[in-house]
Amino acid sequence: MLKSSLKQSLIGGMLAAGMVFSTTASAEETIKVGILHSLSGTMAISETTLKDTMLMLIEEQNEKGGLLGKKLEPVVVDPASNWPLFAEKARELIEKEKVSAVFGCWTSVSRKSVLPVFEELDSILFYPVQYEGEESSKNVFYTGAAPNQQAIPAVDYLMNEIGVERWVLAGTDYVYPRTTNKILEAYLKAKGVAADDIMINYTPFGHSDWQSIVADIKKFGATGKKTAVVSTINGDANVPFYKELGNQGVSAEDIPVVAFSVGEEELSGIDTKPLVGHLAAWNYFMSVDAEANDSFIESWHAFTKDEKRVSNDPMEAHYIGFNMWVKAVEKAGTTDPAAVQDALIGVAVPNLTGGYSAMMPNHHITKPVLIGEIQEDGQFDVVWETSGLVAGDAWSDFLEGSKDIIADWRAPLSCGNYNVKTAKCSGQNLE
What domains, with CATH codes, occur in the chain? Predict the structure, then answer.
């Protein structure tokens, strides 16, 4: 396919208002780094950990001598799980605090909220969480997974290794689950799955009453065909969802659930015994046996002064993104966003699974794909992984409006939305 060959060629050519707080040094003496994560509200359970991760990484870099002869200064804001407030806080970080780059957001709705701000002010956002694809912005570096780096491999695993025939696509009602499930629905139908064998359900953020939905899932899975749940449920709604699975006796043997937003952090707060055997598709697990991971966990426990604190996939994405940014700044000799944007493409840094991840011309990175089973201790046993790294695809091969689109931010193309059939760039984001 033309898109595929061009894409490979391009790849082959080479990632409620809160208070601002920062250290006391002046902007002239430091390089400011923005941290834009919810510390309150429905996403706090997930995002506070990412704030702590960034503080650790910045502290470690300062212990190494800083960057360009200056210390790094974290500037932390709390957008409080309020999507419009994300945009306001992003503008505050860039215009008022003069940060050189921002590490932040979790949900796609928060990323969509801040996107126009970063593009208007030509700043840099490192986005660390798996997302729905269908986007490539000059100002965003997507260190989380695209659908071809989690969702599609997870479906392939369930279909090929477990023999799943009926599919429940259950998600939180916002852009990531809806777009990802649109891609998965098209992919399943292309694989010969009948529409009657696909059930789709959406619930609000923070949804807590799962009794009837889990009952519906049980009924849907009682036809004699192997059934699985592909979960794009996000935030603190995962806790009551998994509790209700346990309450109604839905075991992994009966109806396995594979999740993309449930990691070690979420499992640390619930009884995992009823959940043993359910699955998650990520690109990193705390249980990965690698020297780099052992060192990271040791540093994390020392920084938090808590041996029980877990690590998770979006933490690794910030680890990769931060180190890529440091390397690109050193390469460019400046924190100027335009220079750093160019310098980032082609940068490769160690990941925590024992290899390297590289930033591709489409502003996505290369990753291994891992599928893990939940264990009684809240950790994951890796049951499947890709043989090598997978390059993130900004535009899905399974959607009519996207299959002919590529992104390449290198000159002379410098386009996030290039149609290989029409040979035209139609802007950064296809709407």
Answer: 9-145+292-367 (3.40.50.2300), 148-282 (3.40.50.2300)
Rounded CA gap, 70 and 30, in Å? 5
Q: Residue 89 in contact with residue 113, Cβ under 8 Å? A: no
Query: Facing residues of 370 across strands?
Result: 282, 385
DSSP 87-148: HHHHHIIIIIS--SEEEE--SHHHHHHHHHHHHHHT--EEE-S--------TTEEE-S--GG
CA distance readout (Å), 179 to 174, 176, 331, 419:
9, 5, 36, 20
DSSP state of 161: I
Indicate the pTM of the whole model.
0.89
Question: Cα Rg for the chain, rounded, in angstroms?
Answer: 21
Dihedral angle of Cα 343, 348, 352, 355, to the nearest 10 degrees: 170
**DSSP string covering 170-183:** EEESSHHHHHHHHH
Q: What are the tokens at 303?
A: 């920084």
Query: Chain centroid to CA 108: how far?
Result: 9
pLDDT in tens, 114-125: 999 999 999 999
Q: 259-292 burial, b if ≥16 CB within 10 A, otherwise e?
A: bbbbbbbbbbebebebbebbbbbbbbbbbbeeeb
User: What Å distances lie between residue 81 and 14, 139, 259, 286, CA to CA?
Assistant: 37, 22, 21, 26
Q: How confident is the model at residue 8 (pLDDT cuts 50, 70, 90)?
A: low
Coil, strand, or helix at residue 199? strand
Question: Is 31:66 a contact under the CB 8 Å cutoff?
Answer: yes
> Could you read off the pLDDT of 65-84 as tens digits, one per residue?
999 999 999 999 999 999 99
CB 33: neighbour CB atoms within 10 A? Answer: 28
